[in-house]
Amino acid sequence: MAYWLLKTEPEEYSYSDLERDGSTVWNGVSNALALKHLRMMTVGDLALIYHTGKERQVMGVAEITSQPYPDPKLDNAKRVVVDVKAIQRVPQPVTLAQIKQDSSFENFDLLRLPRLSVVPVSESHWQQLLQLSGSRGEAFCR
User: Fold this and answer.
1) Are the beta carbons of 112 and 122 closer than 8 angstroms?
2) Helix (H/G/I), strand (E/B), else coil: 3
3) Strand 57-64 versus strand 3-8 pairing type
4) Would you tell me which of 14, 81, 89, 97 could form a disulfide with 10, CB atoms 3.0–4.6 Å apart?
């Protein structure tokens, strides 16, 4: 199992929207490296949903529920999507400022490649982010 961070503009689609819908197609990714990361996802992987824009914070945990597949709304096999479902909102959102203050995140792609919308998360960073959020990390590790 792998861990990911998926960015979204909360005005367009927020974690609350994902909770309401239960699941969604994670689409709209066009960056080549972000698409490469999407293609590496597999059923059962977990993802942190991160609000961009003015919020800049981790909001909740989701699960990847499909293998990557071509976006059915586009005529371009390279533009893939995955299905995700809401698992749980984090007790306390983790802000970008909190992440930047912790030197153990200095090599984290969220900081190194700030415009990337799909970011791999190491197991140690995953655990740290869950701790910062007040979540019990073992609840999201299989």
Assistant:
1) no
2) strand
3) unpaired
4) 14
* Model confidence, pTM: 0.94
Q: By the 8 A CB rule, do 98 and 140 touch?
A: no
Beta-carbon contacts of residue 9 (< 8 Å; ≥ 6 apart): 51, 52, 53
What is the full DSSP assignment across 44-56?
T-EEEEEE-TTT-
Tokens matching residue 135: 């979540």
CA distances from 79 to 6, 54, 57, 67, 69 (A): 16, 27, 26, 13, 8
What is the spatial distance between Cα 34 and Cα 137, in angstroms, rounded to a whole number?
25
The number of helices, as runs of H, and strands, as runs of E, in the chain is: 5, 7
> Which pair of tokens denotes residue 100?
């930047």
What does the pLDDT read at residue 142? 46
Would you state the structure tokens that stand for residue 88, as one six-digit string?
């749980």
pLDDT tens digits for range 95-127: 999 999 999 999 999 999 999 999 999 999 999
3-class secondary structure, 16: helix
Distance, in Å, from the CA atom of 117 to the CA atom of 134, rounded to the nearest integer, reads 24
Check if the beta carbon of residue 38 is closer than 8 Å to that of residue 67: no
